[in-house]
Amino acid sequence: MNTPVKDTVSVQNLIVSASPHVHAGQDVRAVMRDVLLALVPGVLVGLWFFGLPALVVLLLSVGGCVACEWAACRLLGRRSTVGDLSAALTGVLLAMNLPSGSPWWLVLVGAVVAIGLGKAIYGGLGMNPFNPALVARVFLLISFPVQMTRWVVPRGPGTGFDAATGATPLGAVKEAISLGRPLTAVDLPGAGDLLLGDMGGSLGEVGAAALMLGGFYLLWRGIIRWQIPVGFIASLVVVTGIAHAAAPDRYLHPLIHVLSGGLILGAFFMATDMVTSPVTRRGMLVFGVGCGLLTAVIRLWGGYPEGVSFAILLMNAVTPLIDRYTRPRVFGAPRRVLFSVRRGS
Amino acid sequence: MKFKGGIHPSYLKLTAGLPIEAMPLLERYLVPIGQHIGAPGDVVVEKGQAVKRGEPLTRPAGFVSVPVHAPTSGTVKKIADFPHPLGRPQLSIELEADGLDAWWESAAPVGDWRTLAPAALRDAIRDAGIVGLGGATFPTHVKLSPPEDKPIDLLVVNGAECEPYLTSDHRIMLEQAVDVCEGVGLMMRVLGVGRAMVGVEDNKPDALEALRRACPPDLPLEFRLLETKYPQGSEKHLIYALCKREVPAGGLPMDVGVVVQNVGTAAACVQAVRDGRPMTERVVTVTGSAVMEPRNLMVRIGTTLQDVLDHCGGVTGDLGKVIYGGPMMGMVQFDLECPVLKGTSGILCLKESEVTQFEGRACIRCGNCVDACPMLLVPSRMGVLVERSRWEDLGEACVTDCIECGSCAYVCPSRRPLVQYFKRGKLEWRAVQRRQDSHA
Q: A125, exposed or middle or buried, with CB in 10 Å at 0-12, 13-18, 19+?
């Protein structure tokens, strides 16, 4: 109920601040919540195929990251930023990047590296140049290669405990090529299995369809822009498509490249990490295309079967440069030649 | 044409359907001598002097200066520093009304604008104390005196009213449509231009229709409905949307042959010339959820905020903020003893719960501000530069091109006080420039 007040003393107690005086209502927590929501279908598919061990990895990872965030704020004497949900998101993304049967200590080391080395030492949210979850994944991949490539092959729902281990499709292909065998000798999952996730891999490498669903949700909500995922996927398709057309028995069909490995997770959820990707639309496109090209090069000719993580981290490193050279032409500024930076006015 | 960037805030035009009502005569008015951009005038009245409505209280002090007038007849009670909406106390004339509200004898019609010489019209506009009523308060006669080397071929008339809540221009277009059109014709005559375009956002088609119907057949006005998008009423963006001309960075509309005037200013000009009525009142939208009875009021210049709010039924107990103007660019008020000025298009009262606290967490580089900036700047970068006191880098970031529209801060999920940062950044960058110049 509105009650009129004429008491001068109380109405003089006015809030004074610079304009604007209203806001669209969005905040960081809501952004992170939307991304977490978008990950739900992908996480559910992963849990469905890999069962209880995957759930343990997920909970350890989220718990570890949130605990590290809290501890980091505590150590630095800052207000806790656990509530903005960014650490929880890093936790989910890290879990998606680990083999479903990872030992508990591997997950916790990953969490400490992600939040500690990936984020807190730079000054926390917004200050880190590299995607924290990918920093942790690559750290673990290099430090513990055996544990990080022991993939559980799903045998269907509910069989997580006694699942067999095997290679990912991309790993099998890399191995076959290094042994000089043609691709026809490799037992590859069909496109349907790839879409639904019936194959070996980490939590976030299976269930491309579910992950894409989440990606489309983020596009629709305006949390991510199309430039990064489209640039990423399109450039990968072009390069792997040319390679496949030239030598089909050595190079996989581009569709398999798109649906396997961490590509969908990477293109929609990892490369689009706001903090570590460009702020301009043109910059996002350059960034996405760069990620796709690097992924293709690593997958086709590199030492590792999968290159999404490395590609994104390498592009993270050049994000400040991309931002610098893709600034829009300021309204009213003279037209300029491509890639020249306007000097002070 | 559409300009890039911009936002779509909630418009909340609560008072769009309410006709303009005149506020009853009060006992006391407070008229600051400086209500425009430029030098305040010199006071020409003395304490205890009897004045009548429309009598000048000051005389222009220079070219970029206009007089202020007595809002009613009465006695000059005090000439002293009083609270002023800009924050710093200012020399003001306190007037005690005699209740007769008699007009000054010399406030007589100047003549027919269609036959008067442009110079005579310009003088009449200055003597009537008319300034840009959209809120910029730049003296209108100065804007109508472009330098010889800047030929003007187009008059743009701003009826966009893109700020949420405000409806004063909307009501003026509906209720004073003839005056608006005649005023545009008058300004065209002063400028010697043959072309004028009137731009109205497409959430007010009735206003455009009213103007079109009221337009005398001999006036070649072009009426355009524009996309409803903030900041459509920004001079540079309005010009771009209407005729695709881009005002150069650091430049003025006259650099592309355009003069922009607000619809209310146009009406005020014709009222001054035809009726001999100087600026003693203006239309003010009193609005927001913290005011009991939102209204469009004809308020005399010099009415205190407290009096206006009392007339609108008072305010709610949880009043948090009082703003002169709209919620995007309006200026916050700190004292209800401050008077309504010529540039006060609205009085917006927000509840404490509606007031956004821009607490300024770290930038997460989401890019929302880059998409929203109508000047195509990179506000995220500029904000970080200010935070780190890297003043010398602000020039390259083009901070001086910022129009402070607030679109960036409006969409920022980290609630960063970006506009405040850029106001500071501009000052610091200019200081850097001055230092560089003195060393050179």
A: buried
Q: Would you kindly state where each structural domain of chain B is located, as residue ranges?
A: 118-275, 368-439
A277 at B interface, C-beta within 8 A: yes
Q: How many whole angstroms separate alpha carbon B312 and alpha carbon B287?
A: 9
Q: Least CA distance to A2: which residue of chain B? A: B316
Q: State the total domains in chain A.
A: 1
Contact (CB<8Å) A330/B398: yes
Beta bridge partners of B156: B197, B260
Could you read off the pLDDT of B182-198 as tens digits, one per residue? 999 999 999 999 999 99
Question: Is A279's CB within 8 Å of B370's CB?
Answer: yes
**Is the pLDDT confidence value at A158 over 60?**
no
Range of the domain at A293: 28-326
Topology at the third CATH level for domain B118-275: Rossmann fold (3.40.50)
A4, B332: Cβ pair inside 8 Å?
no
Three-class DSSP category at A241: helix
Q: Please state the φ and ψ torsions of residue B439, each to the nearest 5 degrees.
A: -80, -25
Q: What's residue B417's pLDDT?
A: 95
Residues in chain B within 8 Å Cβ distance of A344? 395-396, 398
Interval B47-103: pLDDT, tens? 999 999 999 999 999 999 999 999 999 999 999 999 999 988 999 999 999 999 999
The rounded distance, in Å, linking the Cα atoms of A212 and A234 is 15
Q: Tell if the CB–CB gap between B335 and A12 is shorter than 8 Å.
A: yes
Lowest average pLDDT, out of A150-159, A317-326, B427-436, goes to: A150-159
**Beta strands, E only, B109-263:** 154-159, 196-201, 221-226, 258-262
Contact of B70 with B104, CB cutoff 8 Å: yes
Residues in chain A closer than 8 A to B376 (CB atoms) = 328-331
- CATH assignment of the domain containing A270: 1.10.3430
- Residue A34 maps to a domain: yes
Distance CA B244, CA B238 (A): 9
- DSSP state string for B28-89: EEEEES--SSSPPPEE---TT-EE-BT-BSEE--SSS----B-SSSEEEEEEEEE--TTSS-
Mean pLDDT in residue range A122-133: 95
Tens of pLDDT, residue by residue over B263-281, are 999 999 999 999 999 999 9
A24 with B164: Cβ contact below 8 A: no
Give the residues across from B97 on adjacent strands.
Answer: B74
* A9 inside 8 A of chain B by CB: no
d(CA B22, CA B13): 20
Percent of chain B with pLDDT over 90: 93
Rounded Cα distance between A21 and B418, Å, is: 12
Nearest-CB residue to B375 (from A28, A276, A330): A330
Query: Which residues on chain A are in Cβ contact (under 8 Å) with B334?
Result: 14, 16
